[in-house]
Specification:
Elements lengths: L2 H4 L7 H19 L8 E2 L1 H8 L3 H13 L3 E4 L3 E4 L4 H22 L5 H15 L3 H21 L4 H18 L5 H20 L3 H30 L2
Antiparallel strand pairs: 1-3, 2-3
Helix pairs in contact: 2-4, 3-4, 5-7, 5-8, 5-10, 6-7, 6-9, 7-9, 9-10
Length: about 230
């Protein structure tokens, strides 16, 4: 007997799925940009009324955001933007380092060298741009490279785990007070990662990736510590 004949599957409501994704993206962008601060309440009725939709897709979007650890759903209280302590941030980056290095080991032979040459050139060109242009392009290039490493790993479960960390890491990017300085260093680190891959030096590529993630974590923790100290004054 086919599995489709055994399982009880609900009808897919395409419009609900579409609306839920729109709501998810809208709230997600407000969180990672810092417009919605940690601890801020998000109510179904307010979002639904503001967007002119029913509460069902809003509820589904909030569940997804909770799964991504961006919000907390408190029974009989509501939904709140999640805050993170220093220990949790440290943990997230350590997990990311281990998972992404594993992804790079799997993807090393599979990555398109021609595409990497093109991407390396884009990183180098980005370094020569003024600050505003550089910041906008650096974020896109950063995402492109790290997505390539995950996708080329050929491990859907590993890719999914890294994707689940992505949203939480994006929040930290916008909390870095001196991100423009970090961005230029990150560009150089990305060039080094790609250069090692193109030189067919897997060990060097892994070390460059570990160093890049470690530096990112250090910068985030330093800035989070400064923000906490400022809040206590």
């Amino acid at each position: 007997m086919r599995y489709e004949e055994v399982m009880q599957l609900p009808k897919i409501k395409k419009i609900d799925n579409s609306l839920s994704e729109i709501v998810y993206q809208a709230i997600y962008k407000n969180i990672i940009s810092g417009k919605l601060k940690p601890g801020a309440a998000i109510t179904e009725i307010t979002v639904a009324n503001t967007m002119g939709i029913s509460r069902a897709p809003v509820r589904e979007a909030l569940k997804r955001l909770a799964e991504d650890k961006l919000v907390v759903l408190v029974p009989r209280s509501g939904c709140y933007v999640k805050d993170m302590n220093m220990e949790e941030i440290d943990e997230i980056y350590e997990i990311r380092k281990r998972l992404e290095c594993m992804a790079l080991e799997y993807s090393f032979e599979k990555m398109d060298r021609r595409q990497l040459h093109t991407l390396k050139k884009k990183f180098e060109e980005c370094l020569a741009l003024d600050t505003e242009q550089m910041l906008a392009k650096e974020i896109k290039l950063d995402t492109q490279l790290h997505n390539m490493i995950a996708q080329d790993s050929g491990c859907p479960n590993l890719e999914e785990m890294l994707e689940n960390l992505r949203a939480r890491i994006e929040v930290f990017r916008f909390k870095e007070a001196n991100y423009q300085d970090r961005a230029r260093l990150a560009l150089t680190e990305h060039v080094e990662i790609i250069g090692a891959v193109l030189s067919e030096d897997k060990s060097a590529a892994l070390e460059c990736l570990k160093t890049h993630i470690a530096h990112t974590k250090e910068n985030v923790l330093k800035n989070m510590k400064a923000l906490l100290e400022e809040a206590q004054k």
